[in-house]
Amino acid sequence: MAVESFNGSVGELKGYYCAICKNKGMVAELIDGQDYYKPCSCMSIRRIGNLKRDSGIENLLERYTFDNFKEKERWQTELLNKAKKYIKTGGWFFIGGQVGSGKTHICTAIVKELLNKGVPCKYMLWRNEASRLKANVNDDIYSDMIKPLVETRVIYIDDFFKGGVTQGDINLAFEILNDRYNSCLATIISSEKTINEILGIDEAIGSRIVERSEEFITNISKDNYRLKRV
User: Fold this and answer.
1) Which distant-in-sequence residues (6+ apart) come within 8 Å of 94 by Cβ?
2) What pLDDT, on the 0 to 100 scale, is given for residue 230?
3) Average pLDDT of 9-16?
């Protein structure tokens, strides 16, 4: 039978072995004498795998999770609970301040949870990507380079405004964040700078982060890593 022949054949899909469709992505069944073909259940798994590979942060997703985030102090538990709540509500998420306090860990864990739900996410390491974009700002390829950063459903900007901040950095940050602000696209930001320091650098950028992040703003101070709002 055609159905049995199709289901017994082996496909060429890579990255995940499925015993049901044998890597074809489709399965066949006979209904009322007719052959019907439908997507295999593995396609949702493959899609999530593709999203993780495209995120730019695949190598960190297993290392930084909610489950292995250390909760030695109350502020860490509060931060973890806030991150888990963000997964359910969306919007913008900002965490800034003390180096080595788990900012990248908690933001990466958020991204992993969203990817597992099938939500496309893009990772941007600010210093590296900003340098690349600024170097090409007057070239024809600039619009293609920045497009994923302003249009991806969720972006995670890591180490935002790290190091010296030039006018070119401010212009780029405003372009990306203002477009995402206007489009109401989810944005996750970690920075060694607090939100007040960002407001001091550029009020237009800082105020957009404050407005969109609302309850999901966390500043971690150097004194005992206490959590502080704006």
Assistant:
1) 188, 189, 190, 191, 195, 209, 213, 216, 217, 218
2) 45
3) 77
Q: What is d(CA 216, CA 186) in angstroms, rounded to the nearest whole number?
A: 12
Cβ pair 187, 212 in contact under 8 A: yes
CA distance 204 to 101: 27
pLDDT at 7 over 50: yes
Helices vs strands, H then E, count in the chain: 10, 8
Cα distances from 8 to residues 3, 19, 29, 36, 45, in angstroms, run: 8, 10, 12, 15, 21
- Using DSSP's 3-state secondary structure scheme, residue 100 falls into coil
Rg (CA), the chain: 22
**Res 36: pLDDT:** 81
Q: Residues for the chain: how many in total? A: 230
Residue 104: Cβ within 10 Å count: 18
| CA distances from residue 199 to 21, 83, 207 in whole angstroms, order as listed | 54, 23, 7
| DSSP designation for 206 | H
> What percent of the chain is modeled with pLDDT above 70?
91
Place of tokens 């888990």: 84
Q: How many CB atoms lie within 10 A of CB 107?
A: 25
| Location of structure tokens 């709540």 | 85
pTM above 0.85, yes or no: no
- Residue 186's closest CA among 160, 134, 150, 224? 150
Q: What is the pLDDT of residues 102-142, one digit of tens each?
A: 899 999 999 999 988 888 889 999 998 899 999 998 888 99
Segment (H or E) for 199: helix 195-201
